[in-house]
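Handout, section B. The chain below has 486 residues.
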Amino acid sequence: MSLVLSDKPSERAILAGVCQHGGDAYFDIADLVQESTFTDETNAAVYRCIKTIFERDDASTLDIALINSAANELGFSYLLNKKDDIKYIQALFNFPISKQNVRKFAAKIRKLEIAKLMHKQLGDAQDQMLDVKGNESVAHILSIAEDAIFDFTSLLNDGDNMPEILGEKSRDYFQYLMDNPVDQIGISTNFPGYDQAIGGGLRPATINVIAARPKTGKTVLTDNIGYHIAKTGVPVLNLDTEMTKEDHLVRTAAMLNEIPINDIETGQFGKKADWREKILNTADHLADIPYHYKSIAGKPFEDQLAIMRRWLMQTVGLNNDGTAKQCVIIYDYLKLMDAQGISSDMKEYQLLGFMMTSLHNFATRYKIPILALMQLNRDGESNEGTSAASGSDRIIWLCSNFTIFKNKSPEEIAEDGPDAGNRKLVPVVARHGGGLDPRDYINCHMTGWCAKIVEGKTKFELDTEKAVDEGFVVDDDNTSDIAFSD
């Protein structure tokens, strides 16, 4: 069967509309069609000439001589110097068409172009299928077809690109906000200080990065956050690169019941009736909440994206506009694994940048929040800035917020008091939220034996309380400027 996907009368109508109505008609369709949108060689050449004319002088008045001049300049004279071609161009200036219909015809041939491009994309996917050797994972094979669709739609720009008045329909929007009030924009992590600092929880279409040195407790942190989100009914997918499902299950059970991890892992909890009852009840509870887990250790990054996409479509569900329903993906953590499918010529920072870009595009495409964990480099032991992030600057560029999670120093513990906590969250970058003062941080206490992390007060809140206790007068709007005597 031959591939049609062409409408030459519509192409002719577009050219006629621009020839007769000039720049107004051209700029009304310039966001929809390009030279490649036209399937007829002569139509494509005429459009290229018209485009060149109007981009050079948007006030130009089209005529046959001007089009022929542009054709000679572009090397298209061989297409437009035939007698039939000249008659065709002359006919364009006489073809009856109203200005308001030009964009309708442009939209039509644009859709045909999209179908043609999609046909080619699927054909390329079929060719890739023929290269399958049989030792690939099923997920990888499925991702060939899925990527053909996802990559195409993520790159396709088929919306209305016309700028609009900022305040247009703003009254309706603000009325909607008043009629549907919420406590905060994003999904709560159960760490209210952190939520506020990053702009109201995990917001849609964002990458929220938490970085930590090894063995600090970042996986414990994700389990605490993941569980508290899932228990509200919001689906959570925890993608883990290092630990097993059993590791997460035991830590979550320990956190909920404050029973030592070791006693659960060894089965010793069964010797105590109250512990046994708590753990078995927890098992039933965890089976009833939408907290999902998948190990992605060693999987190519393309397969990881396929897993996320399939989870959204099969478990979470999509809205009518193609965005996902409310959910959270936890990615623990950004690092290099199997670089299959990625050029071996790319350096490590480029590969991490590629991963971050892909996650950002994914979050934006489906309008979901992703909580991504990453390692701090050794500089992160003393430095609490963005330079402590391992890998690419692109991680900082594309994330909506960047927070450091680290052990408090003995000096900090002594200054804040032993009850203030042994860990701290330091929001360094916050695109939507106010963040914290550069000298401030959020205190957290991690009880390692039961994998529990509780958020405490900020350093400035503790300093304020201390100042009040010592008789200082505190300005609530400027607590960071409290002065203490030696």
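Note. The beta strands are 206-212, 236-240, 291-295, 328-334, 369-375, 401-407, 423-430, 442-447, 452-458. Compare this with the example in section A.
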